Amino acid sequence: MIRPASIIDIAKSVRSGSLKSTELTKSVLDDISRRNADYGCFTRVLAEQALAAAQAVDDQVAAGVDPGPLAGVPFAVKDLYDVAGLPTTAGAKMRVSSPPATQDAVVVKRLKDAGAVLVGTLNMDEFAYGFATVNPHFGTTRNPHDVTRLAGGSSGGSAAAVAAGLVPLTLGSDTNGSVRVPAALCGLWGIRPADGAIPVEGTFPFAEILDTVGPFTRSLAELELVYELMAGAPLIRSKSTPRIAKLEGWFARNASSEVLDALGKVMSYLGVKDTVELTEAQTARSASYLITAAQGGTLHLETMRTRVMEYDPAVRDRLLAGAILPAALYQKAMDFRSFYRARVQELFEHVDILIAPTTPVVAPRIDQATMLIDGQQASARANLGIYTQPLSLAGIPVVSAPFHVASGMPIGIQFATAPGRESMLFQLLRTLEADGVLRSQTIQG
Amino acid sequence: MSKPNDAQRPFDVFGLLNLVLSSECVAGVESNMEQMKVHARIVEAFDLTQAKNKASNE
Question: Could you tell me how many CB contacts below 8 A there are between chain A and chain B?
Fold first, then answer.
């Protein structure tokens, strides 16, 4: 069957009765069974559960009951969201046989309550500690635009599943950039919400002070709709004209020419020449790195006491290094965080929207170990988050938007704003999408 | 000095060091510590008091 392209069209068709949720779900499940092996997105396909949920949606429509704004929309979640009846693996083999979750994560329940149909769980870096989605237990997720390249991480399965056209909606989590990096590398819309804007309850933690959850979609209208449903409240509409500036300094350093060119075209389109330098950005990135390592190491210490050799060796050694970080250093990073958040808040007294690249380069090849950072070869995977980490530490909402690339690999641009100004941000992005400056890149099977 | 099988034994807080130094983990942890040292130096070099004073004078 030819499936409607967008979440909004699916829900409209299902609500009107012109499309059966069960037929759509069967088609999606067939597609996943045929094509998932090409990309390695799904860790579990919940066929029986999905078909039962779809039947319930169809029954509601037949009975004249509105299933909700996501009626019949197939969706899937990163494998760190609790799904009632299933163990939450967090991408770890050692958790495959852990006790099943007794209830859905808050946002999973909210999407189901809106009529969405959960079809599966998605691949990730083990315990979300990575930007690659190279997982020794569940495999490597491949970028649908070029399967020799990374999909990004740690929510790589979530991004690749939407980019491959397997499902129109997925959820990921973003601690240091784990929604924004894969959204950029796979050509999608993704959002890291402001701290506390969307509940994280029922997700497996990583570094709790930085953890957020967010969706991946193919269009801004879909992103906005799902964001509001996840947040549990509509955005307060704004009619103000935003003050916009490009982030300079750290956010221009190390970017490839194609990324800088894309950013330049966005700024030209907007007619904005104002720039802002967040002089503490490099320190913010480092503080974020250390806080993540220390909190991750502490979180896993108890498990590592007895099961350390069951971890992905790369993740294990990162967690061990984090567990032995000096407390004084962690405290200094936390003190810096408090100062830095106040500085960023001050910045938003003069500007509403800050624009920067999401990643310094397009998706690296899976076998590419290094890239050039400050004139030296450095880990390609670890440095995919150099522009996302400083914004994570600020706790502000950031959308990674897909720059319209006529050919070649996708490029993502970050649009950040102050908490409470999300509506203004979406308004600006609507214009850029409508005029074709921003546009997702997906493939169809 | 730790032995290769240290990593397979349950450990207490102090035993964490044995684990870190075990043959299975030491190379990987050392590599990660090198990365963390780079970030630690950047954070250590940031003069928070001076930055706060500068910010309050702006």
Answer: 90
